[in-house]
Amino acid sequence: MSPDNAWKAGHGIETGIDSGSLASPPSRSSLVEGLRAAICRIEGVPAARLEASPPRDVGRPDQDRHPSSPSDRAARLATGIAKADRLLGGGFPRAALTEIRIDAVRDGGAGLGFALALAVLFGATARRPLIWIAPAAMLGEAGLPYRPGLAGFGLDPDALVVVRTRRLEDAAWAGEEAARSGAAALTILELRGNPARLSLEGTRRLHTRARDAGRPVLLLRQGAEAEPTAAPLRLHLSPGRAAPVDGLADPRLIGRPRFVLAVEKSRDGRSDHMLIEWNSHDRRFEDPAAAVPVAVASTPAERPDPARTLRPVLALGGARRLG
């Protein structure tokens, strides 16, 4: 076996050509045809569709990085923030697996809050709900959703379906079945770390189910390391400092939640990060950097004398001083 064919065999690429049975090495066109057939089998698409793809313009590399066709735009959910949509390659995929990684388990609330905001954008309703799947141990530690809190965050409480499983394997199976059904506006599978059940092969199954059903699936990893994934988009998320409350100077008051997003994997290979804010009242993401500063009126030089502090006075009638 030649070194080239040994490399192909070690990486699971079948060219369909046995070089040992040929008197001369295979031609370049034969290798290309074999690789095209292997890619079609891996991607699950007909060869005609692959051949119909327009050739790339090597003179304009940015042409492939910015999807502009109607089909590309329809396949993604725009956030409404121009910078975020450019960062995400047009928005969040509507029919694919998206992976969000969080470093610390203690920041899991930020990850779930961001996922709930996505469910609102994807239009979760009681008839087409958000399906949230997680092992019972995680839900037992972090607690179950609070209905008034969901409503205040912008999500209809009746639009949430929680699936608790005893084992991680059951959670992974439930995620695949929920994605396959196509009944959910968004399916969230939440777990901790990097279990082997959801390594590259496991994420490939989730992505295939989401793609075939035409529905988004979100894999939310807490305390996880970056590893190979079949998800076309993987984000690293961390909580940002909450926005200040308008008109109030008390720093202890908590305003709108903010999230720091960093792209770790995307279709075009771009990597960047940004801070976004969730507006639960208007049910949309906003860019804090684009907020219009509010002018604060200066304190007038001449103003009424502030009221003096009243102190309690004790009057003792008829008391005499003893000498």
Care to describe what's here?
It is built from ten helices and eleven strands. Helices cover 30% and strands 19% of the residues. A nine-stranded mixed β-sheet has the order 5-4-6-7-3-8-9-10-11, sandwiched between helices. The model is unreliable at 1-25, 48-70, 293-300 and 319-323 (pLDDT under 50). By secondary structure, the protein is α/β, with parallel strands linked by helices. It has helices spanning 3-10, 28-43, 47-51, 70-74, 82-87, 108-121, 136-142, 147-153, 168-181, 200-213, and strands at residues 76-77, 92-93, 97-102, 130-135, 160-165, 186-192, 217-222, 233-240, 258-265, 273-279, 284-286.
Tags for this model:
323 residues, alpha/beta, 10 helices, globular
Radius of gyration: 28 Å
Low-confidence stretches: 1-25, 48-70, 293-300, 319-323
Strand order of the largest sheet: 5-4-6-7-3-8-9-10-11
Helix content: 25-40%
- Number of β-strand runs: 11
What gross morphology would you assign? Answer: globular
Portion of residues in beta strands equals 15-25%
Give the CA-CA distance, first to last residue: 120 Å
Oligomer: single chain
Mean pLDDT: 75
Q: How many individual helices?
A: 10
What structural class is derived from the secondary structure elements?
alpha/beta
Order of helices and strands: HHHHEHEEHEHHEHEHEEEEE
Largest sheet: number of strands, sense, barrel closure: 9 strands, mixed
